């Protein structure tokens, strides 16, 4: 005679096991979803910081260009610093006006008439930009923080050199 088993309440997985497994799956999914959301928020904040740094570098570059246009005699002093600012803008991913046609061109910065005041204005612009970058370090992702710190240090050196040259 063949033995047949009838289904009883005790056979198969228990309700408690299924519920525990389902709860664990929900917790795992919920945790990873929250983590992804937080990571996405941090990534977006980092991109906003990077975009701001690129904008600041582009504004600083425009100040150098306006000063060079107004005071050709300062070209020997300013061209090496301007070249570094251009590299900083590239490092932050600054878009050129040709690359972003929808952006309205910014008005040219005003430049003082005498060379000494023009150098002082550039030094102030470098100092303000460097200070802003140093303040942003606390909220920047690690890689961007290293870049911001490096460029802030270079900006502080530029401000010093422009002040000494004045």
From TrEMBL:
InterPro entries (UniProt xref): TAT_signal
Region (Disordered): 93-115
Keyword Lipoprotein: yes
Keyword Lipoprotein found: yes
Composition bias, Low complexity: 94-103
UniProt keyword list: Lipoprotein
Protein name per its UniProtKB record: Lipoprotein
């Amino acid at each position: 005679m063949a033995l047949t088993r009838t289904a009883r309440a005790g056979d198969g997985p228990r309700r408690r096991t299924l519920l525990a497994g389902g709860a664990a799956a929900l917790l795992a999914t919920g945790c990873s979803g929250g983590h992804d959301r937080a990571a996405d928020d941090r990534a977006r904040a980092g991109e906003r910081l990077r975009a701001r740094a690129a904008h600041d570098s582009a504004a600083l570059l425009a100040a150098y260009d306006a000063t060079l246009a107004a005071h050709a005699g300062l070209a020997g002093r300013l061209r090496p610093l301007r070249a570094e600012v251009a590299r900083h803008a590239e490092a932050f991913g600054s878009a050129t006006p040709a690359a972003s046609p929808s952006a309205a061109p910014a008005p040219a910065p005003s430049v003082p008439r005498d060379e000494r005041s023009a150098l002082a204005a550039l030094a102030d612009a470098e100092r303000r930009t460097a200070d802003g970058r140093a303040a942003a370090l606390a909220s920047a992702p690690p890689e961007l923080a290293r870049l911001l710190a490096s460029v802030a240090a270079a900006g502080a050196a530029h401000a010093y050199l422009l002040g000494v040259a004045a």
